[in-house]
Design a protein that fits this description.
The protein is mainly beta and 478 residues long. The protein has five helices and 16 strands.
Length: 478
Amino acid sequence: MRKLYFGLLATVAVGLTHTGRGAAQNPPPAVLPDGLPTAVPADPLTVTQPPAPQPGAPGAFDALQGITGCAPAEPPTPPAPPPYGGPFLERQKLLGGWFGARERLRDHGVTLDIHSTNIISDLANGGLRESFQQRGRIDYLMHVDGEKAGLWKGSFIDLHAEMAYGTAISGYTGALEPANIAQILPTPNGYVGALTGVKFTQALSERFITFFGKINTAEAFNQPFTGGALGVDGFMNGGLTIPAVFVRTIPYSTYGAGFAYLKGAEPVFSFSLFDANNTPTRDGFDTFFDNGVVFVPQVNVPTKFFGLPGHQGLTGSYSTKRYTIIDRTAFINPILGLTAPTKSGSWALSYNFDQTLYVAPDNPKRSWGTFGNLGLADQNPSPFRWFANIGFGGSSPIASRKLDTFGVGYYYLGLNNALQNLAPRLLPFRDHEQGVEMFYNCAVTPWCHLTPDVQFVIPAQKRADALTVFGLRAKIDF
Protein backbone atom coordinates (compact mmCIF):
# COMPACT_ATOMS: atom_id res chain seq x y z
CA MET A 1 0.00 0.00 0.00
CA ARG A 2 2.86 2.45 0.72
CA LYS A 3 3.99 2.05 -2.89
CA LEU A 4 0.51 3.03 -4.00
CA TYR A 5 0.48 6.31 -2.11
CA PHE A 6 4.11 7.16 -2.85
CA GLY A 7 3.19 6.75 -6.51
CA LEU A 8 0.56 9.50 -6.37
CA LEU A 9 2.86 12.43 -7.13
CA ALA A 10 4.60 10.36 -9.81
CA THR A 11 1.24 9.57 -11.39
CA VAL A 12 0.28 13.24 -11.70
CA ALA A 13 3.76 14.15 -12.93
CA VAL A 14 3.72 11.40 -15.56
CA GLY A 15 0.37 12.70 -16.81
CA LEU A 16 1.80 16.20 -17.30
CA THR A 17 5.03 14.94 -18.86
CA HIS A 18 3.44 12.53 -21.31
CA THR A 19 0.79 15.03 -22.32
CA GLY A 20 3.39 17.58 -23.24
CA ARG A 21 5.40 15.05 -25.22
CA GLY A 22 2.33 13.50 -26.86
CA ALA A 23 1.08 16.87 -28.00
CA ALA A 24 4.41 17.62 -29.61
CA GLN A 25 4.73 14.29 -31.38
CA ASN A 26 1.04 13.80 -32.23
CA PRO A 27 -0.83 17.08 -32.81
CA PRO A 28 -4.22 16.55 -31.15
CA PRO A 29 -7.09 15.90 -33.52
CA ALA A 30 -9.23 16.83 -30.52
CA VAL A 31 -12.34 16.64 -28.48
CA LEU A 32 -16.03 16.50 -27.86
CA PRO A 33 -17.93 18.84 -25.56
CA ASP A 34 -17.53 18.38 -21.85
CA GLY A 35 -20.08 17.62 -19.21
CA LEU A 36 -22.33 15.18 -21.01
CA PRO A 37 -25.31 14.33 -18.79
CA THR A 38 -25.17 10.79 -17.47
CA ALA A 39 -28.95 10.52 -17.54
CA VAL A 40 -28.54 9.61 -21.22
CA PRO A 41 -28.79 5.83 -21.71
CA ALA A 42 -26.17 3.52 -23.16
CA ASP A 43 -26.47 3.78 -26.94
CA PRO A 44 -24.43 2.21 -29.76
CA LEU A 45 -24.79 5.49 -31.66
CA THR A 46 -23.04 7.58 -29.07
CA VAL A 47 -19.39 8.41 -29.70
CA THR A 48 -18.77 10.94 -26.98
CA GLN A 49 -16.57 11.50 -24.01
CA PRO A 50 -17.74 9.29 -21.10
CA PRO A 51 -19.11 11.53 -18.34
CA ALA A 52 -18.42 11.46 -14.65
CA PRO A 53 -21.25 9.59 -12.92
CA GLN A 54 -23.28 12.72 -12.06
CA PRO A 55 -26.65 12.03 -13.71
CA GLY A 56 -29.45 14.50 -13.45
CA ALA A 57 -32.58 15.40 -15.30
CA PRO A 58 -31.33 17.23 -18.40
CA GLY A 59 -33.60 19.16 -20.70
CA ALA A 60 -34.16 18.18 -24.31
CA PHE A 61 -31.20 20.16 -25.61
CA ASP A 62 -28.70 18.62 -23.18
CA ALA A 63 -30.11 15.13 -23.68
CA LEU A 64 -29.69 15.24 -27.45
CA GLN A 65 -26.11 16.43 -27.07
CA GLY A 66 -25.42 13.43 -24.85
CA ILE A 67 -26.92 11.06 -27.42
CA THR A 68 -25.32 12.34 -30.59
CA GLY A 69 -22.56 14.70 -29.61
CA CYS A 70 -24.59 17.37 -31.40
CA ALA A 71 -27.48 19.72 -30.93
CA PRO A 72 -30.99 19.25 -32.36
CA ALA A 73 -31.71 20.55 -35.84
CA GLU A 74 -33.61 23.51 -34.30
CA PRO A 75 -32.59 23.63 -30.62
CA PRO A 76 -33.95 26.07 -28.07
CA THR A 77 -31.61 28.94 -27.33
CA PRO A 78 -29.11 27.54 -24.80
CA PRO A 79 -27.51 29.59 -22.04
CA ALA A 80 -24.15 31.16 -22.78
CA PRO A 81 -21.38 28.54 -22.35
CA PRO A 82 -19.05 29.08 -19.40
CA PRO A 83 -15.64 30.63 -20.10
CA TYR A 84 -12.59 28.37 -20.15
CA GLY A 85 -10.49 30.85 -18.17
CA GLY A 86 -10.77 32.13 -14.62
CA PRO A 87 -8.74 31.67 -11.43
CA PHE A 88 -6.25 28.80 -11.69
CA LEU A 89 -7.90 26.61 -9.06
CA GLU A 90 -11.45 27.32 -10.26
CA ARG A 91 -11.24 27.03 -14.05
CA GLN A 92 -12.60 23.95 -15.82
CA LYS A 93 -9.41 23.30 -17.81
CA LEU A 94 -5.81 23.43 -16.61
CA LEU A 95 -4.66 25.50 -19.61
CA GLY A 96 -7.68 27.77 -19.55
CA GLY A 97 -8.91 29.46 -22.72
CA TRP A 98 -5.60 29.70 -24.58
CA PHE A 99 -5.74 33.52 -24.36
CA GLY A 100 -9.23 33.52 -25.87
CA ALA A 101 -8.46 31.16 -28.76
CA ARG A 102 -10.52 28.34 -27.27
CA GLU A 103 -13.62 30.52 -26.95
CA ARG A 104 -13.20 31.82 -30.50
CA LEU A 105 -12.94 28.27 -31.84
CA ARG A 106 -16.06 27.30 -29.91
CA ASP A 107 -17.92 30.29 -31.33
CA HIS A 108 -17.05 28.95 -34.80
CA GLY A 109 -18.30 25.46 -33.96
CA VAL A 110 -15.04 23.74 -32.95
CA THR A 111 -14.76 22.33 -29.42
CA LEU A 112 -11.44 20.87 -28.29
CA ASP A 113 -10.68 18.73 -25.26
CA ILE A 114 -7.58 16.92 -24.03
CA HIS A 115 -7.39 14.84 -20.89
CA SER A 116 -4.66 12.69 -19.37
CA THR A 117 -5.49 9.71 -17.15
CA ASN A 118 -2.83 7.80 -15.21
CA ILE A 119 -3.56 4.74 -13.08
CA ILE A 120 -1.26 3.00 -10.64
CA SER A 121 -2.44 -0.45 -9.56
CA ASP A 122 -1.28 -2.67 -6.70
CA LEU A 123 -2.27 -6.35 -6.89
CA ALA A 124 -1.82 -6.76 -3.15
CA ASN A 125 -2.69 -10.45 -2.88
CA GLY A 126 -4.08 -13.33 -4.91
CA GLY A 127 -4.30 -13.48 -8.68
CA LEU A 128 -1.51 -15.15 -10.64
CA ARG A 129 1.14 -13.21 -8.72
CA GLU A 130 1.46 -9.93 -6.84
CA SER A 131 2.38 -6.96 -9.00
CA PHE A 132 2.57 -3.17 -9.04
CA GLN A 133 2.02 -1.47 -12.42
CA GLN A 134 1.38 1.95 -13.92
CA ARG A 135 -0.32 2.71 -17.23
CA GLY A 136 -1.75 5.91 -18.58
CA ARG A 137 -3.61 7.29 -21.54
CA ILE A 138 -4.18 10.65 -23.21
CA ASP A 139 -7.41 11.30 -25.08
CA TYR A 140 -7.68 14.01 -27.72
CA LEU A 141 -11.20 14.85 -28.86
CA MET A 142 -12.77 17.31 -31.26
CA HIS A 143 -16.40 18.17 -31.97
CA VAL A 144 -17.37 20.30 -34.97
CA ASP A 145 -20.79 21.89 -35.35
CA GLY A 146 -21.00 21.98 -39.14
CA GLU A 147 -23.43 24.88 -39.39
CA LYS A 148 -21.32 27.15 -37.18
CA ALA A 149 -18.18 26.06 -39.03
CA GLY A 150 -19.65 27.12 -42.39
CA LEU A 151 -21.02 23.77 -43.53
CA TRP A 152 -24.71 22.85 -43.67
CA LYS A 153 -27.37 22.74 -41.00
CA GLY A 154 -27.59 19.61 -38.86
CA SER A 155 -24.09 18.33 -39.73
CA PHE A 156 -21.56 17.36 -37.07
CA ILE A 157 -18.10 15.78 -37.01
CA ASP A 158 -16.50 14.02 -34.02
CA LEU A 159 -12.94 12.73 -33.75
CA HIS A 160 -11.22 10.74 -31.01
CA ALA A 161 -7.49 10.04 -30.93
CA GLU A 162 -5.71 8.38 -28.05
CA MET A 163 -2.26 7.48 -26.81
CA ALA A 164 -1.36 4.90 -24.16
CA TYR A 165 1.86 4.01 -22.33
CA GLY A 166 3.01 1.73 -19.51
CA THR A 167 1.86 -1.76 -18.46
CA ALA A 168 -1.64 -2.88 -17.46
CA ILE A 169 -2.20 -4.79 -14.22
CA SER A 170 -4.83 -7.06 -15.80
CA GLY A 171 -2.32 -9.58 -17.14
CA TYR A 172 -1.40 -10.56 -13.57
CA THR A 173 -4.89 -11.13 -12.16
CA GLY A 174 -6.05 -14.36 -13.82
CA ALA A 175 -9.44 -12.71 -14.39
CA LEU A 176 -11.15 -12.35 -17.76
CA GLU A 177 -12.61 -8.95 -16.94
CA PRO A 178 -9.88 -6.27 -16.89
CA ALA A 179 -9.24 -4.67 -13.50
CA ASN A 180 -9.00 -1.37 -15.35
CA ILE A 181 -10.49 -1.10 -18.81
CA ALA A 182 -8.78 2.25 -19.41
CA GLN A 183 -5.44 0.41 -19.27
CA ILE A 184 -6.22 -2.16 -21.99
CA LEU A 185 -7.67 0.15 -24.66
CA PRO A 186 -6.67 0.39 -27.43
CA THR A 187 -3.99 -2.21 -26.48
CA PRO A 188 -2.90 -3.39 -23.00
CA ASN A 189 0.87 -2.80 -23.05
CA GLY A 190 3.55 -0.60 -24.54
CA TYR A 191 3.41 2.79 -26.21
CA VAL A 192 0.66 3.10 -28.80
CA GLY A 193 -1.19 5.86 -30.63
CA ALA A 194 -4.50 5.45 -32.43
CA LEU A 195 -7.26 7.35 -34.18
CA THR A 196 -10.22 5.33 -32.93
CA GLY A 197 -13.12 7.58 -33.87
CA VAL A 198 -14.02 9.66 -36.94
CA LYS A 199 -17.81 10.06 -36.96
CA PHE A 200 -20.05 12.10 -39.24
CA THR A 201 -23.60 12.81 -38.01
CA GLN A 202 -26.52 14.35 -39.88
CA ALA A 203 -29.65 15.42 -38.03
CA LEU A 204 -32.50 15.14 -40.55
CA SER A 205 -35.03 16.42 -38.04
CA GLU A 206 -35.43 16.77 -34.31
CA ARG A 207 -36.56 13.14 -34.22
CA PHE A 208 -34.28 11.39 -36.69
CA ILE A 209 -30.49 11.29 -37.04
CA THR A 210 -28.06 9.25 -39.13
CA PHE A 211 -24.33 8.66 -38.72
CA PHE A 212 -21.39 6.90 -40.37
CA GLY A 213 -17.61 6.68 -40.05
CA LYS A 214 -15.05 4.93 -37.89
CA ILE A 215 -16.80 4.38 -34.58
CA ASN A 216 -15.32 4.11 -31.09
CA THR A 217 -17.96 1.79 -29.65
CA ALA A 218 -16.69 1.87 -26.05
CA GLU A 219 -17.95 5.40 -25.73
CA ALA A 220 -21.41 4.18 -26.70
CA PHE A 221 -21.83 2.24 -23.44
CA ASN A 222 -22.59 5.45 -21.57
CA GLN A 223 -24.84 4.00 -18.88
CA PRO A 224 -25.89 6.43 -16.13
CA PHE A 225 -24.12 6.14 -12.77
CA THR A 226 -21.19 4.13 -14.21
CA GLY A 227 -18.97 6.99 -15.40
CA GLY A 228 -18.73 5.62 -18.94
CA ALA A 229 -17.06 2.59 -20.46
CA LEU A 230 -13.53 4.00 -20.82
CA GLY A 231 -12.90 3.83 -17.08
CA VAL A 232 -11.51 7.35 -16.74
CA ASP A 233 -14.25 8.90 -14.57
CA GLY A 234 -16.16 6.21 -12.70
CA PHE A 235 -15.84 2.44 -12.34
CA MET A 236 -12.56 0.93 -13.55
CA ASN A 237 -13.38 -2.79 -13.85
CA GLY A 238 -14.76 -3.83 -17.22
CA GLY A 239 -17.45 -5.90 -15.49
CA LEU A 240 -19.13 -2.68 -14.36
CA THR A 241 -18.73 -0.61 -17.52
CA ILE A 242 -19.62 -2.87 -20.50
CA PRO A 243 -22.05 -5.84 -20.59
CA ALA A 244 -19.67 -8.77 -21.13
CA VAL A 245 -22.03 -10.64 -23.46
CA PHE A 246 -21.18 -8.11 -26.21
CA VAL A 247 -17.39 -8.50 -26.12
CA ARG A 248 -17.41 -11.22 -28.81
CA THR A 249 -19.59 -9.43 -31.35
CA ILE A 250 -18.90 -5.69 -30.99
CA PRO A 251 -15.39 -4.42 -31.90
CA TYR A 252 -13.78 -1.50 -30.08
CA SER A 253 -12.97 0.68 -33.10
CA THR A 254 -14.44 -0.12 -36.50
CA TYR A 255 -16.36 1.25 -39.46
CA GLY A 256 -20.11 1.56 -39.20
CA ALA A 257 -23.31 3.43 -39.90
CA GLY A 258 -26.75 3.72 -38.39
CA PHE A 259 -29.73 5.81 -37.38
CA ALA A 260 -31.79 6.67 -34.32
CA TYR A 261 -35.39 7.72 -33.78
CA LEU A 262 -35.75 10.24 -30.97
CA LYS A 263 -38.62 11.12 -28.70
CA GLY A 264 -38.23 13.92 -26.21
CA ALA A 265 -34.64 14.25 -27.49
CA GLU A 266 -33.77 10.71 -26.34
CA PRO A 267 -33.33 7.65 -28.59
CA VAL A 268 -36.22 5.23 -28.23
CA PHE A 269 -34.99 3.07 -31.11
CA SER A 270 -31.62 2.84 -32.84
CA PHE A 271 -30.00 0.53 -35.33
CA SER A 272 -26.28 0.24 -36.09
CA LEU A 273 -24.30 -1.81 -38.58
CA PHE A 274 -20.56 -2.37 -37.98
CA ASP A 275 -17.61 -3.95 -39.75
CA ALA A 276 -16.81 -7.09 -37.70
CA ASN A 277 -13.06 -6.32 -37.79
CA ASN A 278 -11.48 -4.47 -34.87
CA THR A 279 -9.02 -1.89 -36.27
CA PRO A 280 -8.12 0.66 -33.56
CA THR A 281 -4.45 1.09 -34.51
CA ARG A 282 -4.70 0.96 -38.32
CA ASP A 283 -6.90 2.46 -41.01
CA GLY A 284 -8.66 -0.87 -41.73
CA PHE A 285 -9.22 -0.18 -45.43
CA ASP A 286 -7.49 -3.45 -46.41
CA THR A 287 -10.00 -5.49 -44.35
CA PHE A 288 -13.07 -3.29 -44.88
CA PHE A 289 -16.11 -5.55 -44.21
CA ASP A 290 -14.20 -8.62 -45.50
CA ASN A 291 -14.96 -10.72 -42.42
CA GLY A 292 -18.66 -10.21 -41.84
CA VAL A 293 -20.95 -7.56 -40.36
CA VAL A 294 -22.43 -6.85 -36.93
CA PHE A 295 -26.05 -5.73 -36.46
CA VAL A 296 -26.93 -3.85 -33.26
CA PRO A 297 -30.59 -2.88 -32.64
CA GLN A 298 -31.61 -1.14 -29.43
CA VAL A 299 -34.86 -0.12 -27.77
CA ASN A 300 -34.73 2.31 -24.87
CA VAL A 301 -37.71 3.60 -22.88
CA PRO A 302 -37.43 6.64 -20.57
CA THR A 303 -39.29 6.15 -17.28
CA LYS A 304 -40.47 8.29 -14.37
CA PHE A 305 -40.76 5.86 -11.47
CA PHE A 306 -41.15 7.72 -8.15
CA GLY A 307 -41.25 10.92 -10.22
CA LEU A 308 -37.52 10.53 -10.96
CA PRO A 309 -35.83 9.84 -14.32
CA GLY A 310 -34.72 6.39 -15.39
CA HIS A 311 -34.55 4.04 -18.37
CA GLN A 312 -35.49 0.47 -19.30
CA GLY A 313 -33.89 -0.97 -22.41
CA LEU A 314 -32.98 -3.96 -24.57
CA THR A 315 -29.91 -4.22 -26.79
CA GLY A 316 -29.08 -7.05 -29.17
CA SER A 317 -26.17 -7.91 -31.42
CA TYR A 318 -25.58 -10.45 -34.17
CA SER A 319 -22.33 -10.99 -36.07
CA THR A 320 -21.84 -13.02 -39.24
CA LYS A 321 -18.07 -13.37 -38.68
CA ARG A 322 -16.34 -16.71 -38.03
CA TYR A 323 -14.74 -16.90 -34.55
CA THR A 324 -13.13 -19.30 -32.14
CA ILE A 325 -14.14 -19.21 -28.50
CA ILE A 326 -10.66 -17.88 -27.58
CA ASP A 327 -10.30 -15.23 -30.29
CA ARG A 328 -8.94 -11.99 -28.89
CA THR A 329 -11.45 -9.26 -28.15
CA ALA A 330 -10.64 -5.70 -27.17
CA PHE A 331 -12.68 -5.58 -23.97
CA ILE A 332 -11.42 -8.58 -21.95
CA ASN A 333 -8.05 -10.08 -21.07
CA PRO A 334 -6.75 -12.46 -23.76
CA ILE A 335 -6.88 -16.25 -23.43
CA LEU A 336 -3.44 -17.43 -24.54
CA GLY A 337 -1.77 -20.74 -25.36
CA LEU A 338 -4.81 -22.64 -26.67
CA THR A 339 -6.41 -23.48 -30.01
CA ALA A 340 -10.08 -24.01 -30.80
CA PRO A 341 -12.32 -24.72 -33.81
CA THR A 342 -14.05 -21.86 -35.60
CA LYS A 343 -17.77 -21.20 -35.47
CA SER A 344 -19.84 -19.03 -37.79
CA GLY A 345 -21.99 -16.31 -36.25
CA SER A 346 -22.44 -15.06 -32.70
CA TRP A 347 -25.30 -13.31 -30.89
CA ALA A 348 -26.00 -11.55 -27.62
CA LEU A 349 -28.97 -9.92 -25.90
CA SER A 350 -28.95 -7.67 -22.84
CA TYR A 351 -31.49 -5.90 -20.65
CA ASN A 352 -30.39 -2.68 -18.96
CA PHE A 353 -31.91 -0.26 -16.50
CA ASP A 354 -31.01 2.83 -14.53
CA GLN A 355 -33.06 4.67 -11.94
CA THR A 356 -32.35 7.98 -10.24
CA LEU A 357 -33.09 7.78 -6.51
CA TYR A 358 -32.16 11.30 -5.40
CA VAL A 359 -31.82 14.70 -7.09
CA ALA A 360 -30.38 17.68 -5.22
CA PRO A 361 -33.09 20.36 -4.92
CA ASP A 362 -30.61 23.14 -5.77
CA ASN A 363 -28.95 21.39 -8.75
CA PRO A 364 -30.73 18.75 -10.89
CA LYS A 365 -27.39 17.54 -12.28
CA ARG A 366 -26.31 16.42 -8.80
CA SER A 367 -27.99 13.08 -8.21
CA TRP A 368 -27.38 9.45 -7.42
CA GLY A 369 -29.10 6.22 -8.25
CA THR A 370 -28.79 2.61 -9.33
CA PHE A 371 -28.08 0.71 -12.55
CA GLY A 372 -27.91 -2.87 -13.76
CA ASN A 373 -27.55 -5.23 -16.72
CA LEU A 374 -28.58 -8.84 -17.40
CA GLY A 375 -27.32 -10.47 -20.59
CA LEU A 376 -27.31 -13.79 -22.46
CA ALA A 377 -25.09 -14.96 -25.34
CA ASP A 378 -24.60 -18.04 -27.51
CA GLN A 379 -22.78 -21.09 -26.12
CA ASN A 380 -19.96 -20.98 -28.68
CA PRO A 381 -18.06 -18.91 -29.92
CA SER A 382 -18.96 -16.50 -27.10
CA PRO A 383 -16.78 -17.32 -24.06
CA PHE A 384 -19.63 -16.19 -21.76
CA ARG A 385 -23.10 -17.69 -21.49
CA TRP A 386 -24.55 -15.00 -19.26
CA PHE A 387 -23.64 -11.87 -17.36
CA ALA A 388 -25.16 -9.66 -14.69
CA ASN A 389 -24.13 -6.58 -12.78
CA ILE A 390 -25.71 -4.09 -10.42
CA GLY A 391 -24.37 -0.89 -8.94
CA PHE A 392 -25.07 2.27 -7.04
CA GLY A 393 -23.41 5.64 -7.48
CA GLY A 394 -23.50 9.22 -8.67
CA SER A 395 -22.81 12.56 -7.06
CA SER A 396 -21.23 12.56 -3.61
CA PRO A 397 -23.74 12.66 -0.74
CA ILE A 398 -21.36 15.07 1.03
CA ALA A 399 -23.03 18.41 0.37
CA SER A 400 -19.78 20.40 0.42
CA ARG A 401 -18.15 18.12 -2.22
CA LYS A 402 -20.25 19.17 -5.20
CA LEU A 403 -17.86 17.86 -7.89
CA ASP A 404 -17.06 14.50 -6.25
CA THR A 405 -18.63 11.22 -7.34
CA PHE A 406 -18.71 7.68 -5.94
CA GLY A 407 -19.71 4.16 -6.87
CA VAL A 408 -20.04 0.62 -5.56
CA GLY A 409 -20.91 -2.31 -7.80
CA TYR A 410 -20.96 -6.09 -8.23
CA TYR A 411 -20.65 -8.24 -11.37
CA TYR A 412 -21.09 -11.95 -12.10
CA LEU A 413 -19.82 -13.63 -15.26
CA GLY A 414 -21.00 -17.12 -16.25
CA LEU A 415 -18.54 -19.00 -18.49
CA ASN A 416 -19.64 -21.27 -21.32
CA ASN A 417 -19.05 -25.03 -21.01
CA ALA A 418 -17.15 -24.95 -24.30
CA LEU A 419 -14.49 -22.73 -22.71
CA GLN A 420 -14.32 -24.73 -19.48
CA ASN A 421 -13.89 -28.01 -21.41
CA LEU A 422 -11.38 -26.69 -23.96
CA ALA A 423 -8.23 -27.58 -22.01
CA PRO A 424 -9.20 -28.44 -18.42
CA ARG A 425 -5.68 -29.56 -17.49
CA LEU A 426 -3.61 -26.98 -19.35
CA LEU A 427 -5.77 -23.96 -18.50
CA PRO A 428 -8.58 -24.85 -16.09
CA PHE A 429 -11.44 -22.39 -15.63
CA ARG A 430 -14.09 -21.99 -12.97
CA ASP A 431 -17.68 -21.88 -14.18
CA HIS A 432 -17.90 -18.22 -13.18
CA GLU A 433 -16.07 -15.03 -12.25
CA GLN A 434 -17.35 -12.40 -9.85
CA GLY A 435 -16.14 -9.18 -8.33
CA VAL A 436 -16.91 -6.09 -6.25
CA GLU A 437 -15.56 -2.58 -6.82
CA MET A 438 -15.72 0.63 -4.77
CA PHE A 439 -14.36 4.06 -5.72
CA TYR A 440 -14.50 7.70 -4.68
CA ASN A 441 -13.68 10.34 -7.30
CA CYS A 442 -12.34 13.43 -5.52
CA ALA A 443 -12.19 16.77 -7.35
CA VAL A 444 -8.97 18.42 -6.17
CA THR A 445 -9.81 21.23 -8.62
CA PRO A 446 -12.40 21.25 -11.42
CA TRP A 447 -9.62 20.14 -13.81
CA CYS A 448 -7.88 17.57 -11.56
CA HIS A 449 -9.55 14.45 -10.13
CA LEU A 450 -7.98 11.78 -7.91
CA THR A 451 -9.80 8.46 -7.49
CA PRO A 452 -8.85 5.79 -4.93
CA ASP A 453 -10.34 2.41 -5.87
CA VAL A 454 -10.45 -1.10 -4.41
CA GLN A 455 -11.60 -4.34 -6.05
CA PHE A 456 -12.19 -7.85 -4.69
CA VAL A 457 -12.38 -10.49 -7.43
CA ILE A 458 -12.72 -14.27 -7.69
CA PRO A 459 -11.06 -14.75 -11.11
CA ALA A 460 -12.11 -17.20 -13.82
CA GLN A 461 -8.79 -19.05 -13.91
CA LYS A 462 -8.60 -21.80 -11.27
CA ARG A 463 -4.86 -21.36 -10.78
CA ALA A 464 -5.47 -17.75 -9.69
CA ASP A 465 -6.54 -17.10 -6.10
CA ALA A 466 -9.16 -14.60 -4.96
CA LEU A 467 -7.50 -11.22 -5.30
CA THR A 468 -7.47 -7.66 -4.04
CA VAL A 469 -6.45 -4.76 -6.28
CA PHE A 470 -5.87 -1.24 -4.99
CA GLY A 471 -5.84 1.53 -7.56
CA LEU A 472 -5.24 5.25 -7.72
CA ARG A 473 -6.29 7.24 -10.78
CA ALA A 474 -5.28 10.81 -11.62
CA LYS A 475 -7.16 12.60 -14.39
CA ILE A 476 -6.22 16.07 -15.63
CA ASP A 477 -8.35 18.05 -18.08
CA PHE A 478 -6.20 20.32 -20.21
